Amino acid sequence: MSNPAQKTAANTAENTLADIVSHAKEYGFVFPSSEIYDGLAAVYDYGPNGVELKNNLKQLWWKAMTQLNQNVVGIDAAIFMHPLTWKASGHVDGFSDPLIDNLDSKKRYRADVLIEEKAAEYENAGDKPRADALLAEMGRLLTAEDLAGVKQLILDEKILCPISKTANWTDVRQFNLMFSTQVGAVAGDSSQIYLRPETAQGIFVNFLNVQKSARQKVPFGIAQIGKAFRNEIVARQFIFRMREFEQMEMQFFVRPGTEGEWYEHWKATRRRWHEVMGLPAEKLRFHDHDKLAHYAKAAVDIEYEFPFGFKEIEGIHSRSDFDLTQHQTLSRKKQQYFDNDVNPETGKPYGNYVPYVVETSVGADRLFLATLCQAYQEETITEGEQTKTRKFLKLHPAVAPVKAAIFPLVKKDGLPDKANEIYNALRHDFRLVVEEKDSIGTRYTRQDLIGTPFCIAVDHQTLEDDTVTVRHRDSREQTRMPISELRGYIGEAVSLSRIFEQL
Ligand code: ATP
């Protein structure tokens, strides 16, 4: 039976996500794709503020990888790859989710998600052992590919379709998540190619090209940001689960036997990165995988507490030499590295080997959603006699779409010209806007809603002494300062080195 207190908590969470979704649309962060045609399920477009925020997040990841580590270099591989790539990686045969349909509602579900939701119900009701036992049983059945057993588990647990409220289920079957298309003009099996379901394989097949051209020695990493495509069965929760999304992945190639320490290194480094970027420690947690892929030595998710619960934003996986060995077999091209460092045990070089890989993989869109959820604030403020709710985005200045907005107090007396003069002096350094329209209060509100950290008011005193008032988004406090100090002041707040020195 559902617990009323829990229901309220769930409703509040949904309301918060609904608020964020509508905020994202209204203020130009995220739009449903092809909205004039009623949208396309699980596909979204980023608007003018969204693209700035997303680019800033991607830049911070990219620089944290390739600028802070001499032994991490980037690539930008094509989305289309030779079809054998996906045979080698196991995606053709194994990249599928267990699917189940309800015959009454005609709705399709992921069988594992239905069971996970049941386990979450047990856990929320305080019965963690039962939740854990259920998840372990599901893991066992999926590993054994016992799909009939998975269906039986759904029936035994009396899991009902949320729409029809019946247990009239089809059998469970596997559904491959890769999108395929034809290359060239001639149709047929040989021309079938896939839209990549992960960016990692573009890195694996370029391992030797990069190692040689960038003169890297193991251990070293290759970073990439790019689109990936998955025909997700159930796409929900806004940009959390999309059919076209963006990944930021880094494959770190190590000497076999050292993968354990590198796994711990990247696990800690990546979690710290999220904290420094503004996701609070108490809203992040590690979640070890219950079920490991057959090639994996260890795998952990970094989860963030979204309004709909703790969910994965990044995966850190110790992948052994599986991918490179598979590519070596199918391509018949050696994927070996000659390590001339001396092994202290033998006194001889380590010699030839296929490196092991530790990967970090974060979704740019999930990171964007976590950032937006974290930044979204509603506070009650008192202005004179009036009490009102103020909404604002408490974004780190370094990722905010606009760094400062410049407001001439009135549209006359030369103030707009002065505002534009300041804009022209600073636009090479920062993304700024000049706004003349509406009352200053309305203009502050507009900038709060998109997370602009500073608003610069140009008034009559400015014409006399070249000073302006800088209003701070979070505290709403105002500071008077000379125009000549603005560059240093904003620069300090948006400085990447201030972020990176905390890593
Ligand atoms: P999930 O279990 O949520 O489906 P996953 O374990 O399949 O995710 P990975 O294959 O490890 O995900 O992909 C790495 C990262 O890519 C994830 O941590 C996530 O941030 C992102 N990602 C994966 N699938 C999607 C998707 N459909 N939409 C948006 N981001 C995604």
What does this structure look like?
Catalyzes the attachment of glycine to tRNA(Gly). It is found in: Cytoplasm. It is an enzyme of class 6 (ligase). The chain has 503 residues and is an alpha+beta fold. The chain folds into 3 domains: 10-80 and 178-372, BirA Bifunctional Protein, domain 2, CATH 3.30.930.10; 96-176, Herpes Virus-1, CATH 3.30.40.230; 395-500, 3-Layer(aba) Sandwich (Rossmann fold), CATH 3.40.50. The chain has helices at residues 4-26, 48-66, 83-88, 91-94, 111-124, 128-143, 147-156, 200-204, 207-213, 259-276, 322-331, 364-375, 415-426, 440-450, 460-465, 486-494, 496-500; strands at 30-32, 44-46, 72-74, 96-101, 108-110, 173-176, 180-182, 192-194, 220-229, 244-254, 284-288, 298-306, 309-320, 337-343, 348-353, 356-363, 376-383, 386-393, 404-408, 432-434, 454-458, 467-472, 478-482. The strands form 7 sheets. A 7-stranded mixed beta sheet has the order 3-9-10-16-13-12-11, sandwiched between helices. Strands 20-19-21-22-23 form a 5-stranded mixed beta sheet, with helices on both faces. α5 (111-124) runs parallel beside α7. The two termini are 46 Å apart. Mean pLDDT is 93; it is low at 1-11.
SSE layout and pairing:
Elements: H1 4-26, E1 30-32, E2 44-46, H2 48-66, E3 72-74, H3 83-88, H4 91-94, E4 96-101, E5 108-110, H5 111-124, H6 128-143, H7 147-156, E6 173-176, E7 180-182, E8 192-194, H8 200-204, H9 207-213, E9 220-229, E10 244-254, H10 259-276, E11 284-288, E12 298-306, E13 309-320, H11 322-331, E14 337-343, E15 348-353, E16 356-363, H12 364-375, E17 376-383, E18 386-393, E19 404-408, H13 415-426, E20 432-434, H14 440-450, E21 454-458, H15 460-465, E22 467-472, E23 478-482, H16 486-494, H17 496-500
Parallel strand pairs: 3-9, 19-20, 19-21
Antiparallel strand pairs: 1-2, 4-5, 4-6, 7-8, 9-10, 10-16, 11-12, 12-13, 13-16, 14-15, 17-18, 21-22, 22-23
Helix pairs in contact: 2-12, 5-6, 5-7
The chain binds adenosine-5'-triphosphate (ATP).
